[in-house]
């Protein structure tokens, strides 16, 4: 089987797996599940991991230049290692299906909407992840969804009030990742704004 054919076959299953992970993980963390409910949520999360792992290994096996494929598909590996990144795949589907219909293919508009959606999803996943890691830790101050959401917002925007902070190693790793994402997003927003200003100046300049 050719790699292009495989990717076409698994496109929808991967999107469904990303959505299933988002729902199951949200249910488990926000609901603070125990017993049978927690086992069901964990089983769904594990199943989605298997789907992404099989897809990664299959693409690697079908690639004609495996070294090049590995270098150009780092996100696929990260989606296997870091579960919180899996729902970001849904943004790719939105970009391909929804943006082209709603903004007429305008590049800057597509980038802006895509960027905004990425920030929202990153903040949400960071909130779930840090709450999952911190809630039961000794001395933790992020113990509710509201605490986690406030922490994620001030972290991604680099405000850093310091009223909430992670105390576990896992939580601090999440914080570092979110900070780096926030810095990168700020750079993209600044570049998009500068591009828009230059375009407006060019349009108003007399011939």
UniProtKB/TrEMBL annotation:
GO molecular-function terms, A-Z: voltage-gated potassium channel activity
Gene3D superfamilies (UniProt xref): 1.10.287.70, 1.20.5.110
Coiled-coil annotated spans: none
Domain Potassium channel: 120-198
Topology of this chain in the membrane: Multi-pass membrane protein
Transmembrane parts of this sequence: 12-30, 36-62, 111-131, 173-198
The entry's keywords: Ion channel, Ion transport, Membrane, Transmembrane, Transmembrane helix, Transport
Annotated localization: Membrane
Alphabetical GO biological process terms: action potential
Keyword Transport annotated: yes
Primary location recorded for the protein, binned into one broad class: membrane
Gene Ontology CC, one term: voltage-gated potassium channel complex
Name of the featured protein: Two pore domain potassium channel family protein
Record organism: Cryobacterium tagatosivorans
Highest classification ranks of the organism: Bacteria, Bacillati, Actinomycetota, Actinomycetes, Micrococcales
